[in-house]
Amino acid sequence: MRTRPFRAPHHNASLPGLIGGGTVPRPGEISLAHNGVLFLDEAPEFPRQLLETLRQPLEDGRITISRASGAEAFPARVLLVMSMNLCPCGRRGDPRRVCRCSDKQVAAYVGKISGPLLDRIDLHVEVPPVDRDRLMERRGGKTSGEMAGEVMLARERQLVRFKGRSTPVNAAMAPEDMERHCGLDVESELLLKSAIGEYGLSARAYGRILKVARTIADLGGEEGIGVEHVLEAVQYRRADNRG
Ligand SMILES: [Zn+2]
């Protein structure tokens, strides 16, 4: 009970296995990952319908299973992490290998992650291939331990900010919290507005960018959200405008 769960179901997992179900309803992987991480490796390999069912619990933090006899709800507040390649063969974007996937194949593969699902994912990060020699050398970056320390401090700031709440984290901020804790100066406000227009971001994305910017500011130990925090938060939405 003291360790947060980490669940990584295989893409062959059944719908009841993932979201819960059965004659006598039992929790699925998404509930077993409650308050922890649900990791979907090679996310486009999961059936699209199954991925789409994640949208509701990602909003509500609970999953409702409808049955003839009524509805059952299980807790399902997870940090969803998904990984994917840029194409079905996995070679696209790697300078040392040749990808022969057609544009149509690539579009079908990437399209398995729908716009509305992507909209609910705050951080999109492209990880370029790294060769082994570069991987072994250490160059001045932060260690995992140092980063963990910063994360703990940022969590503590949020604990103080939302004292007494059941979910004392930036991600759970209500609109009135955001008004109080996510104020922007004129420059940041203009930047965010132009990014919204340029990338065609949704109203949901707007709120989520503000929350991410608040967290980036917390990681840096900053009281207010600055233009650099908004810039960083916006660039994590890069997959939104892939068309
Ligand atoms: Zn390919």
Molecular structure report:
The protein is mainly α and 243 residues long. It contains 12 helices and 5 strands. The strands form 2 sheets. A 3-stranded parallel sheet has the order 1-2-5. The chain has a two-stranded antiparallel ribbon with strand order 3-4. The protein starts with 5 loop residues before the first strand and ends in an 8-residue tail after the last helix. The mean pLDDT is 90. The structure holds zinc ion. The site of zinc ion has 7 residues, from loops.
Secondary-structure blueprint:
Elements: E1 6-7, H1 15-19, H2 29-32, E2 37-40, H3 48-52, H4 55-60, E3 62-67, E4 70-75, E5 79-82, H5 103-110, H6 115-119, H7 132-136, H8 144-161, H9 175-181, H10 186-199, H11 203-219, H12 227-235
Parallel strand pairs: 1-2, 2-5
Antiparallel strand pairs: 3-4
Zinc ion is lined by residues 87-89, 91-92, 99, 101.
Which geometry do the CA atoms define?
Answer: globular
Q: Which molecules are bound besides the chains?
A: zinc ion
- Give the radius of gyration: 20 Å
Which residues sit in consecutive blocks of at least 5 with pLDDT less than 50?
none
Helix content: 40-55%
List the helices and strands in order: EHHEHHEEEHHHHHHHH
| Cα end-to-end separation | 43 Å
Oligomer: single chain
Strands of the widest sheet, in order across it, are 1-2-5
User: What count of helical segments does DSSP give?
Assistant: 12
Residues in β-strands, percent: 5-15%
Number of E strands = 5
- Rounded mean pLDDT is 90
Structural class: mainly alpha
* Main beta-sheet strand count, sense and barrel state: 3 strands, parallel
